[in-house]
Amino acid sequence: MKEYTTEFERRCAAFVAAQGLLHHKAPVLVALSGGADSVALLAVLTAMGYDCVAAHCNYHLRGDESMRDMRHACNVCDALGCDVYVRDFNVDERRAATGESVEMACRELRYAWFADLLDRNGAQAVAVGHHREDRVETFMLNLLRGTGLAGLTSMKPRHADVVRPLLPFSRLEIEQYVAARGLTFVDDSSNASDAHRRNRLRNSILPLMEQNFPGAADAILSTIEKLESAEAVYRCAINAKARNYTTPSGIDLKALACEPQAATILFEMLRSKGFTATQASDMLAGADTSGQRFFSTDGSTVAEQNRGILTFIEASSLGTAEASFNVNPRHDINSPVRIEVSFGPVELFRPLAGRPDVAFFDAAAIEGEHRWELRHPRRGDRMVPFGSKKGKLLSDLFNNAKLTAQQKRDAWVMLRDGEIVWLPGLRNSALLAVGPGTRRFVRMQLHLSGFADVSRNNKSPEIGADHM
Hints:
Layout lengths: L6 H13 L8 E4 L4 H12 L4 E7 L5 H17 L2 E6 L2 H8 L3 H20 L4 E2 L4 H14 L3 H4 L5 E2 L2 E2 L7 H10 L16 H16 L3 H30 E2 L2 E3 H4 L5 H9 L6 H9 L7 E3 L5 E6 L2 E6 L9 E3 L11 E8 L12 E5 L9 E4 L6 E2 L8 E2 H7 L4 H6 L2 E4 L2 E5 L3 E2 L11 E8 L21
Parallel strand pairs: 1-2, 1-4, 2-3, 4-6
Antiparallel strand pairs: 5-6, 7-8, 8-11, 9-10, 10-11, 12-15, 13-21, 14-21, 15-18, 16-17, 18-19, 19-20
């Protein structure tokens, strides 16, 4: 058995072994930013005898600081005797093409690259430096957004090819280990900004919780462990139920609808395919219908109902009329239609009656990692109209507006994470609306001549807005 020089290394080795995270038969790809977590991770894994290859992403988002981080990552690898790959990314180009947030664009870019490096090096996994505070933050973020058991179990030691050997350690323990190894790390200046929810949680809310409820972080971690045990039991029960309703051609919706908790069971069966809980409920509501289609949140998979059976096909096999377009609500949208986007403090907010070409949202709705898209209506689409608490079929809304068949086909639908939030030029949604807790609002105005004759000849008032 290998002898380790520090308690940190002994604990890490015990955690890796208990979780079955790594073996010594293949290299380990280590994500190395140059911060304390990633430096400690590379250092401890090399001390444990793993063949490590580092990967550093340079997003060029912080000017000279980004270059400093890259140089430091290379110096750390020199000191530890590890090879390092460095990749430059154009985040703005990615966002222009996909409409993703900065965080999501960076994540997608790095994990696509990591997947390529895994194959190229025959590596067994990508090791990342998440630690115990990261796990607490993720639990809190998921709790505040609203989530199920899986979300409340927070970060897992392993997720597919990604492993997290430092989950048992605190940030302080990590920094102490880096110092004990005679290494240094760099700080990302953007971590001090409260522009993002995780930063606000880390910098303000969690310290306040710890001050008023000493031991809060430890209590949350203890709760996560209990929820993990509960989720294991829950998952076994769901899998047993799922087997009862899985057929060679798909899912037997008609039979499943008789279950007391049918919506929960169906959602868990569909979660990995990218469908929402709302979609699962709508599928069950129309279990006896045929031809109704539902698109996964990433637009890649289509679920189609046919005589009580839910089947799945690739969205790429459908025609262009079914296509969806990722958009970025942080600035003007120019394709597939033009939508002007502006922002303002809630003090300047003035609702506009009878203006379906204009929509207002709470600016908090566009924070974080969300998929926004525009597409044409699909059979079975539903929306909760502004002023209502109940969802309605778009086909009913179109009929009430006396749209022609062509106008129905030409209409646009805006969605966030698979939920319809606006019918540009026709009807506003009750979702994401400006409310008592709103501090800033987003104003979107459709510029599309004559759609359904509802927005023609309406002139928009100017507001003092800053574009993002």
